[in-house]
Amino acid sequence: MATVVLKLGGAVCLEPATVAVVADEIKALQAAGHAVVIVHGGGPQLDKALVELGETVQKIDGLRVTSKPAAKVVLKVMDAIGKDLARLLNEAGVKANHLPAVAEGFQAMPKKSEKGDLGRVGTVSRFTAGSRITGAREVAVVTPVGFDAQGPLNINADEGAAFVATALRVKWLVLATDVAAVRGAEGEALSKLTPRSARKLILENTASGGMIPKLTAAVAALSGSVSRVIITKIQPGLLQDAVLRGKIQGTLVENDLAVA
């Protein structure tokens, strides 16, 4: 049995069309004896909530600068998204269980950046809720908010998904975004990357914005148990093609020295 960790971005995770496609993919994998764990994002929802709070939306390398008051809003909004996503999946015929953000989930520490102060943005040091997921019949919908002694920390969902995949020792991690593939320096779609070539895209500023955390997460996941990371958008057949047929949609990132 294979377990796939799927990260769904906040821009699409509550869209009925996306939920319908994801539900169909999950049903097909479950019928073949496989399992899916979902880690969700919440970018647009957080933008809206923080602007209403009077916060300025500022990002550094795709990471949201987060004040202490904003971190509390992040916790509330992200938990609400996870709860709604689990409900929508259940309504679509997939048994799903929301794992809310609690201190016993993602243990984290403040993330440092040479480009500026990120505030209450965290980097995950440990994911401790693996025992609540392993062997469960329901799809776990994981809310990626970290905690330290000072309270909640805003965790990038791609990084959170990489830690969940590593903690569960899965082979497949799918980072769903709003583009079909990672793009190269000439704008061409890249079908394959290695950790080395992924880092090169970041260092040469070919990758920017939200793609930076995705590539960073892919590299981190491949340093653990994960064998294959796919970066693409949600589309019919995505998970089935990858796990059941060995056909990749989007960009495959793997430790393959034969890849340029």
| Continuous helix count | 7
Biggest sheet strand line-up: 5-8-2-1-11-15-16-14
What is the element string, with H for helices and E for strands? Answer: EHEHEEHEEEEEEHEEEEHHEHE
Q: Give the biggest sheet.
A: 8 strands, mixed
Helix content: 25-40%
Note poorly predicted spans: none
- How far apart the termini lie comes to 31 Å
Find the count of extended strands (DSSP E, 2+ residues).
16
What shape does the CA trace take?
Answer: globular
Give Rg in angstroms: 17 Å
Q: Which structural class best describes the helix and strand composition? A: alpha/beta
What labels would you give this structure?
260 residues; alpha/beta; 8-stranded mixed beta sheet; globular
Characterization of this structure:
The protein contains seven helices and 16 strands. It is of the alpha/beta class. It has an eight-stranded mixed β-sheet, with helices on both faces. It has a four-stranded mixed β-sheet with strand order 7-6-9-10. α1 runs parallel beside α7, α4 packs parallel to α6 and α5 runs antiparallel to α6. The chain is globular and about 45 Å long.
